[in-house]
């Protein structure tokens, strides 16, 4: 069969032909001909055709299989033509130079790798737990690393109000046009009202701005980028120790410097209030301090209202910029106002906070990626300037946010019947988590455990810092197929009335 090479292929072939071999003429013949039968096996091995040039000379052609290069062994071409179109399919051409036989020369067709210096990254600790869980054949296995709500049968749960909102949206047969850079207006308004309260002075005066984001992670990253560009007074962001694992790379990759303040006391499995106040009082002025509004992740330890008040006072004296992360409003206590209390109190005390929100947990919209980022400003003029710069930041990041999840959330928040149903459902999710905490402690006592497990019920939200030691965690994984992260954090969403007794038995066995 006759094959013709394109102009680029002609130039490449002619370059190859200019490489001399001993006792043979230079290979400069025009490229056009038929591949002999002897070459067609190698031709197929390369995955492409071979075009031959009219030269009666033996030319060994080798393409390496190793590192994405195909090895063909030497061919002796006695035909009137020789060509290498098939080698265009491989990463390198190795023509004979000086003698025939082994590979003596390399002519790259394309770079074999731009990324040879890229090292393998460490596995995600949560995903690693899930992968190990999936491989386990124990019928009693438990995955307590998952960060999503499960019902009492251990199944993913879609809220009824979400289903109804989806049906209403589908019935309207709306378009799929781009949202504005700042997101869906109805959503951002409802988002801010949910966090700050509909009667908040900040909203009435118009001195805040809210943009729709790619859930909580996207909100944090937009906020981090905004700080990196405009908060020039200090580059330091102080995180509670410990904090959500993603906080560090989010702020670090935005160019901020990470510091820590005391938060969790491993001796009591509770809040280190005195340590936190002491550290906060030493933070340099105008630094950024990140606070978990409710249901601290990963510890489940929240300050009490009187502790929040004292923290707000110290933070104000230090003139620190407060960055609230509120990913669990309503999901912590079951009461949306109680869970937003800290945010609202700080604003009442004169803090112009920035706020990240997520609707992944409290509406179960995990994959819809629905979130908001709010900046409380001095006045409306400042708010307009901030909004303009947020849009400039967002435009090259993701241009505009996704539509569907924002429509679902705004429909629920703006429809009285759906809103009431949502409040009931989010409380039922929170109540189930609280009940599982109580049942776990009760079953540990039945097992005969003499340890103090009060911290399990004192903590709040999806996660519980059990206080288990690394060797105890290993025992639970290896002996009982109870999977969790090495720090002993468990997701209470993975505990059900059907497996809580088994979990208590396993924990007791590992800790006695």
TrEMBL record:
Matches recorded under Pfam families: Aminotran_1_2
Ranges of residues in domain Aminotransferase class I/classII large: 140-507
Keyword Mitochondrion in annotation: yes
Main location group: mitochondrion
Intracellular or extracellular location(s): Mitochondrion matrix
Superkingdom classification of source: Eukaryota
Any one GO biological process: L-aspartate catabolic process
Annotated InterPro entries: Aminotransferase_I/II_large, Asp_trans, NHTrfase_class1_PyrdxlP-BS, PyrdxlP-dep_Trfase, PyrdxlP-dep_Trfase_major, PyrdxlP-dep_Trfase_small
Entry keyword Heme: no
EC number per UniProt: 2.6.1.1
Entry keyword set: Aminotransferase, Mitochondrion, Pyridoxal phosphate, Transferase
Catalytic activity: L-aspartate + 2-oxoglutarate = oxaloacetate + L-glutamate
Cofactor(s) this protein requires: pyridoxal 5'-phosphate
UniProt GO MF annotations: L-aspartate:2-oxoglutarate aminotransferase activity; pyridoxal phosphate binding
Top EC class for this record: transferase
Comment field (misc): In eukaryotes there are cytoplasmic, mitochondrial and chloroplastic isozymes.
Family listed: Belongs to the class-I pyridoxal-phosphate-dependent aminotransferase family.
Subunit structure and binding partners: Homodimer.
Protein name in the entry: Aspartate aminotransferase
Organism lineage string: Eukaryota, Metazoa, Chordata, Craniata, Vertebrata
């Amino acid at each position: 069969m006759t094959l013709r090479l394109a102009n680029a292929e002609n130039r490449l072939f002619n370059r190859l032909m200019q490489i001399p071999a001993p006792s043979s003429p230079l290979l400069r013949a025009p490229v056009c001909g038929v591949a002999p039968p002897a070459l067609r096996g190698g031709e197929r091995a390369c995955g492409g055709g071979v075009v031959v040039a009219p030269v009666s000379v033996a030319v060994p052609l080798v393409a390496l299989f190793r590192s994405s290069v195909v090895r063909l062994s030497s061919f002796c071409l006695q035909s009137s033509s020789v060509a290498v179109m098939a080698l265009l399919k491989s990463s390198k051409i190795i023509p004979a130079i000086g003698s025939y036989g082994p590979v003596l020369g390399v002519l790259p067709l394309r770079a074999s790798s731009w990324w040879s210096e890229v090292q393998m990254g460490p596995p995600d600790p949560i995903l690693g737990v899930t992968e190990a869980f999936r491989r386990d054949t124990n019928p009693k296995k438990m995955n307590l690393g998952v960060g999503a709500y499960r019902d009492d049968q251990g199944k993913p749960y879609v809220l009824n109000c979400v289903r109804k909102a989806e049906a209403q949206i589908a019935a309207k047969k709306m378009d799929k046009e781009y949202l504005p850079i700042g997101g869906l207006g109805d959503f951002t308004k409802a988002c801010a009202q949910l966090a700050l309260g509909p009667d908040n002075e900040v909203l009435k005066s118009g001195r805040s701005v809210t943009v729709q984001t790619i859930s909580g992670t996207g909100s944090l990253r937009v906020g981090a980028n905004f700080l990196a560009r405009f908060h020039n007074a200090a580059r330091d962001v102080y995180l509670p120790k410990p904090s959500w694992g993603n906080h560090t790379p989010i702020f670090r990759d935005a160019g901020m410097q990470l510091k820590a303040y005391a938060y969790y006391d491993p001796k009591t499995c509770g809040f280190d209030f005195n340590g936190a106040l002491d550290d906060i009082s030493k933070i340099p002025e105008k630094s950024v301090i990140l606070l978990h509004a409710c249901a601290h992740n990963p510890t489940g330890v929240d300050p009490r209202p009187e502790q929040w008040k004292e923290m707000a006072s110290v933070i104000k004296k230090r003139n620190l910029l407060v960055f609230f992360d509120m990913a669990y409003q309503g999901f912590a206590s079951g009461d949306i106002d109680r869970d937003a209390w800290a945010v609202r109190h700080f604003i009442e005390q004169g803090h112009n906070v920035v706020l990240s929100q997520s609707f992944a947990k409290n509406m179960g919209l995990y994959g819809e990626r629905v979130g908001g980022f709010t900046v409380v400003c001095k006045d409306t003029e400042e708010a307009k300037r901030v909004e303009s710069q947020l849009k400039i930041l967002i435009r090259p990041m993701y241009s505009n946010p996704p539509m569907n999840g924002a429509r679902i959330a705004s429909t629920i928040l703006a429809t009285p019947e759906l809103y009431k149903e949502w409040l009931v459902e989010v409380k039922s999710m929170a109540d189930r988590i609280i009940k599982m905490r109580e049942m776990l402690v009760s079953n540990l006592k039945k097992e005969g455990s003499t340890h103090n497990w009060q911290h399990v019920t004192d903590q709040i939200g999806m996660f519980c810092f059990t206080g288990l030691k690394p060797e105890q965690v290993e025992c639970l994984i290896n002996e009982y197929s109870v999977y969790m992260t090495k720090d002993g954090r468990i997701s209470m969403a993975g505990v059900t009335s059907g497996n809580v007794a088994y979990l208590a038995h396993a924990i007791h066995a590992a800790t006695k």
